[in-house]
Amino acid sequence: MTVIDVTDGTFEREVMDEPNPVLIDLYADWCGPCKQMAPIVAEIAKELSPRLKVVKIDIDKNPMCAQMFRASSVPMFVAMKGGKVIGHQLGAVPKAALLRLVEGVVGPDERSVDAEQLAALLVNRKAVAIDLRSPSAFGRFRIPGAINLPLDELPTRKDELRRSDGKTPVLYGRANEGAEVAAQLQSDGFDVRFLQEGFLAWEMADLEVERG
Question: Catalytic site residue 31?
């Protein structure tokens, strides 16, 4: 999902009446740190869709919203659910800080598995690991039995995911790239899941890797 532009006129419908949690990005066109945060906000919108709705409000063009949130300094991020403010964050911050802001109101992603869960699924032959990294990274080390499907080849090879002998494809990249890819593939009708925090999580769990 993309970040939605909200105005004074659409705030009630897009935010107050929204059943899902909402992350609001209050910004201004002249604000350098706001521009710095925009790609991070867009990443969160894609990764947490449809569990989280992400919107942005230009405080210069929407004085009612700016006054409502007392947005005298931007960027300002506000988490809301059911029309109530859950928390807020000021300034340019790491992505992890915004994720912490919404983690209490965003439910678990049913598409995700952690490293231990994936290991169990592989042992029971209920899943196949799909490595989204480059062929060179895959060649150095990977999850045992994984199939390499580099991100840049995905558009032309994604139909291979339907031929998995009844096993569920579980996508992973170096970190959390699999979350966004899984969301897009599921919207295209593919039954896939992803490994939380990717290959880094697999290594951190000290699970077996295949080399060479």
Answer: yes
